[in-house]
Amino acid sequence: MTRSILAIVGLLLVLLAQMFTLQHCATPSSPTGGARDTIGPVLVLEETTTNFQTNFRPEEIVLTFDEWVEQDPKQQIIISPPLELGEDNQPYLRRRSLVIPLEGLALRDSVTYVVNVGSAIKDLNEGNPTENLRFVFATGPILDSAAVTGTLVEDFTGEPLDGATFTLYGNLADTAALTENPTYFAQSDEEGQFTVFNIRPGKYRAVALVRNPGATNYYADLTGTFKPLSTGFIDTIITVADGSTDIGTVRLSSLPIPTKVINLDTSAFGEIILTMNQAAKGIDLKTIRTDYLRYNDKDTIKLYYQERGQDTIYVGRDAVFNDTIVVEATGSSSGRPLAVVAGPKNRVFSVTGPSFTFNQPLETIDTSLIQLRKDTFPDRQTFSYLLDTVFPGQINFRSAWDLQKPFFLDILPGALTAWNGSQNKDTISSKFNLDGPEKFGILTLKAINLDSSANYILRLLDKDKVIPGTSRYISQQTAYNGKFEGLKPATYKVEIIYDINRNQRYDAGDFLLRRQPELIRRFEVPALKADWEVEEVIDLSNQDSGSQM
């Protein structure tokens, strides 16, 4: 009897263990060990509704994958031409399948429908999404087969955009791209290239965007919570014919941030300091007074003045002013103390001489209080100075330098007087050595066939960074000749910005203003060697030379 009971209990334990094992096996979970899966779900064709059918009016579409999947709630599944999906037509998951019910929907005659799944489905284990997944069928005997190709890039650098979205709108109204999902769309690959397939020939409006990770739509929702990160567009309505239509390169610009003053400092006489919520160089000011000297320092705008007075300052961009600052005539009677912001390094290029930058523009320089000495010799050396024409708070000293000896420069108290009347209270001392032209290179540049009605910004780049002091503004000339000295041996690029807006800065595109980003061309010049001069001619009429953004 006891043995029978024990046998029954043992059998029940075995069955119970098997039941738990089966339940565990039936529950999808992440596998352990092995290399990480990086491939998205793949369709099992034998269990999937046949793609690219004609004369087809499905009541449901079933896409079955080779692994357990989940639907990304942030990614929409879009059918084009658009269908009004009711509650009973919403896509849902059934085990390893995505089911798209179409029962009850009025499908149009002789129309090619494209179900854009995109990256809305991802595997359950690693979260790898599908890429540009689409299901195509036609209610008539012919599948639309036109295609549109192109490349999406960042507007300023020209770098390709991976995962950006290109859209086509059959609705040609200006507001369509701001309020409704597109007729067709595709996503770009790591080279920025895209292809939109199965398009009906016709006229379309083209818009590109980098979607916000939180967005569930595919249009440029500029007033919503999840605005696109950047946008681009084609100026004209494009005509799509049978075959493939290449629309070239679309440059996408980041959405402009409304300008805002986050801090105002008028505590010191002679300057108004505006701390902005973005880079100062891209911000416009409209003032009543016209005697300011403006200086941009990262996110700070400094306005220097010499006469006290009331003013109203409007802050914005592109004639849209978001902030207003009222400056009273009263305030501190004393200016900010004059101080050195940057001084010369240990080794100085002999042609330009040692340079000092101060926190205020300089009004007067008393050379009798400035002493330049060579090495240990007590005699004072003769010198001259040059104030920067853009910001007269920068001063360079010139002399007949001896490249074999160190020099000592002492700026005694009271030698420098700023706009606000403050002077240097302490002696400013510097020791430096000089390097002659033989350690540097010279670039002689000639730009020809410029548009005499246009303005340009020309500057030198070293590894895509602007070399300070090399910017030149060319206004309504057919040619430009320039000489750049004191360049360290390297390979440089010449960057030319077509200043369409004539504001002496680069302007990105703006979708709402229907403004394209300004054209940029970059030209690589031959490698520059020490004690070497390179002469380079850039012909702007040659569209095949240089890179163009």
Commentary on this structure:
It is a single chain. The protein is mainly beta. The chain is 5% helix and 41% strand. It has two helices and 42 strands. Strands 9, 10, 11, 12, 13, 14, 15 and 16 form an eight-stranded mixed sheet that branches. Strands 35, 36, 37, 39, 40 and 42 form a six-stranded antiparallel sheet that branches. It has a four-stranded antiparallel sheet with strand order 17-18-21-20, with no helix packed on it. The longest helix has 25 residues, at 2-26. The radius of gyration is 34 Å and the shape is elongated. The model is unreliable at 19-27 (pLDDT under 50).
Q: Can you tell me the overall shape?
A: elongated
Largest sheet: 8 strands, mixed
| Strands, count | 42
Give the class from helix and strand content and strand pairing: mainly beta
Average pLDDT metric: 90
Intertermini distance = 91 Å
Fraction of residues in β-strands:
35-45%
Fraction of residues in H or I helices: under 10%
Radius of gyration: 34 Å
Q: Unreliable runs, pLDDT <50, ≥5 residues?
A: 19-27
**Count of DSSP-assigned helices:** 2
